[in-house]
């Protein structure tokens, strides 16, 4: 499987050409950039322009962009106004949030990428048909804006009652939105019926992945096959390999405080997964 690294691993650090150079030199062929303003500030034109020049001269490709979850530089800690969610039922507020996602999508005008990975709702959010309607309305606008820039929107299975695999299928049936998926193994592991069931429901439409581990309850973004994780990676890799060529193996890890070389550890994780 092709290997892709999410820059979520470095999300608390500013994304620079020097960091991207290190990723390329490590032998990784593509990245998903996690769109958080302390990392990649989609409002900062000099940062985007600098990275755009770097990518044009580089063999490293930008596979995808993770849609922003907050509009501030502090993971939403500046207040509830910083949250970005397409399930916001108040139209004026939702349009403001959609505009933030559009600003992030404008990156594609400088740095081409294939996919935008989009959540429906936040962790633990309950099902509500008003929120389904809100998400559909938002996605119509986001998808139109994305397609004009050569980007395909992927819906990610999320640990809530709006966007687990069963709800994503229901969303497709209700809205006929016709979007494909990013399969998040860690999120699937947090559902009652587990990874195999979630994968089976989503497999026809999976176009990318998020690969990480957890204890089955908390969204920890641990490295697969590391201490604290409880996913059966032999079974999971068999599932992922059952759809050859459909998607890459994309690591979405949290930075480890006890690890000096994060990139080396990521490469070792890819190798261990391929041995399963």
What does this molecule look like?
This protein is α/β, with parallel strands linked by helices and 276 residues long. Helix content is 37%, strand content 13%. Helix 3 packs parallel to helix 4 (129-147). The two termini are 13 Å apart.
Number of strands: 8
Low-confidence stretches: none
Helices and strands, in order, run as EHEHEHEHEHEHHEHEH
User: What is the CATH superfamily classification?
Assistant: Divalent-metal-dependent TIM barrel enzymes
**Arithmetic mean of pLDDT:** 96
From the 3D structure, determine the CATH topology: TIM Barrel
- What helical percentage do the residues reach? 25-40%
Tell me what portion of residues adopts beta-strand conformation.
5-15%
CATH architecture: Alpha-Beta Barrel
Query: Which CATH class applies here?
Result: Alpha Beta
Radius of gyration: 18 Å
Q: In one word, what is the shape?
A: globular
Short description:
The chain is α/β, with parallel strands linked by helices and 276 residues long.
What key phrases describe this protein's structure?
TIM Barrel, alpha/beta, 276 residues, 9 helices, eight-stranded parallel beta sheet, 8 strands, 37% helix
SSE diagram, text form:
Blueprint: E1 3-6, H1 17-25, E2 30-34, H2 45-56, E3 61-66, H3 91-105, E4 115-118, H4 129-147, E5 152-156, H5 165-175, E6 180-184, H6 185-189, H7 194-202, E7 206-210, H8 233-241, E8 249-251, H9 262-274
Parallel strand pairs: 1-2, 1-8, 2-3, 3-4, 4-5, 5-6, 6-7
Helix pairs in contact: 3-4, 5-7
């Amino acid at each position: 499987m092709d290997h892709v690294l999410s820059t979520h691993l470095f999300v608390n650090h500013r994304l620079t050409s020097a960091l991207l150079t290190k990723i390329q030199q490590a032998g990784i062929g593509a990245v998903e950039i996690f769109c958080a303003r302390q990392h990649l500030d989609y409002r900062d034109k000099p940062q985007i322009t600098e990275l755009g020049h770097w990518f044009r001269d580089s063999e490293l490709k930008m596979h995808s962009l993770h849609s922003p979850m907050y509009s501030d530089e502090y993971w939403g800690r500046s207040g509830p106004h910083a949250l970005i969610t397409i399930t916001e039922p108040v139209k004026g507020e939702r349009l403001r949030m959609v505009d933030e996602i559009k600003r992030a999508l404008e990156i594609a005008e400088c740095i081409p990428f294939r996919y935008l990975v989009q959540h429906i709702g936040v962790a633990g959010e309950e099902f509500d048909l008003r929120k389904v309607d809100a998400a559909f309305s938002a996605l119509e606008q986001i998808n139109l804006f994305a397609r004009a820039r050569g980007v395909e929107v992927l819906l990610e299975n999320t640990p809530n009652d709006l966007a687990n695999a069963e709800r994503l299928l229901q969303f497709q049936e209700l809205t006929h939105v016709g979007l494909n998926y990013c399969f998040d193994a860690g999120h699937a592991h947090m559902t009652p019926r587990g990874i195999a069931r979630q994968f089976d429901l989503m497999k026809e439409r999976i176009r990318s992945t998020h690969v990480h581990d957890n204890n089955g309850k908390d969204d920890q973004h641990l490295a697969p096959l590391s201490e604290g994780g409880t996913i059966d990676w032999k079974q999971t890799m068999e599932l992922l390999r059952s759809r050859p060529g459909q998607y890459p193996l994309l690591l979405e890890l949290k930075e480890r405080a006890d690890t000096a070389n994060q990139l080396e550890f990521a490469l070792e994780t890819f190798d261990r997964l391929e041995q399963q």
